[in-house]
Design goal:
277 residues, LAAT-1, transmembrane, transmembrane helix, membrane, mainly alpha, 81% helix, 11 helices, PQ-loop_rpt
């Protein structure tokens, strides 16, 4: 086990990486807040959330596996500081996965029974949420199994690389449904421009941070580079629509239409129940 690579830990680098890890999670707060404030997922593509969570989980699985050497070295004599520093990349990706997954969780639980939530889209969100839970537990099971059986080095590396490549591919495509949804609506809806304004430049900085981590693997930083590129396109679209259209009026009209449909559906259900009685 080559542990020397973890012993040259830089305090400055660690502080910057820690600040970045904190910033990664905090960058999602505007998106979380927007969903809670609007109580609707209007403007967010369910397929965008599906692909995003799958990509995040796969990237986290990749880092969990590749950071395992660092955890082994922690037991072989690394100091507490060196040990934590060896895991900073995994911590960053873990916080990113948590932050993104919370978007889906909030969409499912915070928009439930909301008059401004499209019921057809909510049904799709529930399906996405169930698949997210299944995929998360499946990856957790495989990762724990491979770590316990580290002697299967070839399978270990293959699955780690496969997770990274899969995350990169899915991450590159995840923005296509959202780009289409935003293009169709001509407004961001519950998609937070503030979040994207923070994350797009931050994504490139984060990519560089992961690239410069000790024992860094290309499959670990590539997903975040592709995601930053795609998110940049979406951000430009949202800014363009904001300055070209009256997006506040468009969003009000869309929510009013959804509310009207939900009230009509509720009224129809009440009428049907009355007839059955």
């Amino acid at each position: 086990m080559e542990c020397l690579v973890y012993k040259d830990a830089s305090v400055v680098g660690f502080v910057l990486a820690t600040l970045m890890a904190t910033g990664i999670f905090l960058s999602y707060v505007p998106q979380h807040s927007r969903i809670m404030k609007r109580r609707t997922s209007e403007g967010l593509s369910p397929f965008f959330l599906l692909l995003g969570t799958v990509s995040a989980i796969s990237a986290f699985a990749n880092l969990l596996l590749y950071s395992n050497d660092g955890r082994i070295c922690c037991r072989l004599g690394l100091s507490d500081f060196q040990c934590i520093n060896s895991q900073i990349g995994m911590i960053q990706v873990g916080l990113q996965t948590l932050g993104y997954s919370l978007i889906l969780v909030l969409c499912v639980y915070y928009t439930r029974d909301s008059l401004t939530e499209n019921q057809r889209e909510y049904a799709q969100l529930l399906k996405v949420y169930r698949f997210f839970l299944f995929y998360a537990f499946l990856n957790l099971f495989v990762v724990v199994y491979l770590i316990k059986r580290k002697q299967d080095t070839e399978i270990f590396v293959q699955f780690a690389n496969l997770s990274g490549v899969f995350s990169s591919l899915v991450g590159g495509f995840q923005y296509l449904p959202q780009i289409y949804t935003t293009y169709k609506l001509k407004h961001p809806g519950s998609l937070s421009i503030k979040m994207m304004s923070i994350q797009t430049p931050g994504g490139f900085v984060w990519t560089a941070s992961l690239f410069l981590q000790p024992n860094s693997k290309w499959s670990s930083w590539l997903p975040y580079f592709t995601a930053a590129m795609a998110q940049g396109i979406l951000l430009i679209m949202c800014i363009y629509y904001k300055h070209t259209y009256n997006i506040d009026e468009l969003e009000r009209e869309q929510l009013a239409r959804i509310t009207e449909e939900n009230l009509a559906y509720t009224s129809l259900e009440t009428t049907d129940d009355g007839l059955l009685q």
